[in-house]
Design brief:
Blueprint (H helix, E strand, L loop, with lengths): L1 E10 L7 H21 L2 E6 L7 E4 L6 E4 L7 E11 L2 H15 L3 E5 L8
Antiparallel strand pairs: 1-5, 1-6, 2-5, 3-4
Helix pairs in contact: 1-2
Length: 119
């Protein structure tokens, strides 16, 4: 089975959701995670703080620099993710659809690199 990243794409420029909506979303995504665990495809899940809490580390020419804020200057950022094992892309896309419905955000599906591209 291949591993896939199901990445939640979050528009950080949108106004914050009311607390009741956030709690309902967490309940829905929790149910999807429980379903993944029961199906044996779940590996890991995580939510992230907004990108303004990030630090970018760069090492050009061996000199380390630290920059506050996101790497990409864009309103769409990684908001959270699931890592799953799936038989194929179609199965991963089916799980991504469930995740998108639960969190009401776009989900980017990306396979983990198994090294085959370097051969």
């Amino acid at each position: 089975m291949k591993q896939y990243l199901l990445a939640v794409q979050l528009d950080e420029s949108a106004p914050p959701e009311p607390e009741e909506a956030v709690q309902a979303q967490l309940a829905r995504t929790g149910k999807v995670t429980d379903e993944m665990k029961a199906a044996g495809v779940w590996v890991f899940v995580g939510g992230l703080q907004h990108s303004d809490a990030s630090t970018v580390v760069r090492t050009p020419g061996g000199t380390t620099t630290l920059t506050d804020g996101p790497f990409a200057e864009t309103k769409e950022q990684l908001g959270g993710f699931w890592v799953i094992r799936a038989e194929d892309l179609d199965q991963a896309l089916t799980w991504a659809e469930k995740c998108s419905l639960a969190c009401e955000q776009p989900i980017e599906v990306r396979p983990f690199d198994d090294g085959s591209r370097r051969r």
